[in-house]
Amino acid sequence: MAPVDWQSAWRAGRTPWDAGTSPPALRKLLERGVVPPGRVLVPGCGTGYDLAALAHADREVVGIDVSEEARDAFTAAHGSLPGEVVYEVADFFAYRSPAGFDFVWDYTFFCALDPDRRPSWADVMKRLVKPDGVLATLLFPYEDPVSGREGPPWPVNATMVERLLGGSFEVLEVREEEETHPGREGKERLALWRRQS
Ligand SMILES: C[S@@+](CC[C@H](N)C(=O)[O-])C[C@H]1O[C@@H](n2cnc3c(N)ncnc32)[C@H](O)[C@@H]1O
Description:
alpha/beta; Rossmann fold; 26% strand; binds S-adenosylmethionine
C-alpha cells in the first residue's frame, strides 16, 4: 500500500479521523491529575482540539503536524488559550526541540504511521521525552493479537509499543477505555510509559 499523502488529504478535506473533539480518555487523564505542568507535546495533532484540552497556565503545549490546513483550522477555531500553546507545521521525524517534554500525548498518530516507521517513532520519543517524563499512548484500533488488516489506522497493541520502546520506558498502566468516541467502543486502550532516567 502506498504511503498516505497527509498534506493532500488535508487539502482535499479527506479527514475522516477528525472527531472534532478530544477523546473522553484525555479528559479523564486530566481529571486524574496525570498530566503534569511543564512542556507537553502532541505529535500529529490535526486540528488541535487536544492542544486546547491540554492548555493550562502551567504548561507550554506544542502541537506538530505536517499540514498547514490543519494548523489554520486550529487557529480559526481557538482564540486565546491559557498558558503557552504553539502549533508547529513540522515533520515529527525531523523535529528537534531545545528542551525535552514532561508529557507526550499520542492519539491516532502511531496507528497512522506506516509500520516501517515505528522504530523511528520510538527513537524520536526516546529523544524527546525527558527522564521521568510520561508518554501517553491512547492505542486505537486495539487488537491483540493484531490482524493482518492494513491501515491507516493500523491495528496496534501495547506489546508492540513495549517492544519498540525497549528498556528506555517502563509501563505504568494499560487500561481499557470504556468511554470512547462513537464507533470506537472496545477498541481503545490507554497505555502510560515513563521514560527511564
Ligand atoms: C489520523 S490523523 C490524527 C489527527 C489527530 N491526532 C486527531 O485525532 O484528530 C494523523 C495526523 O498525523 C499527521 N502526520 C502524519 N505524518 C506526520 C509526520 N511525519 N509529522 C507530523 N504529523 C504527521 C497527519 O497530517 C494527520 O493530521
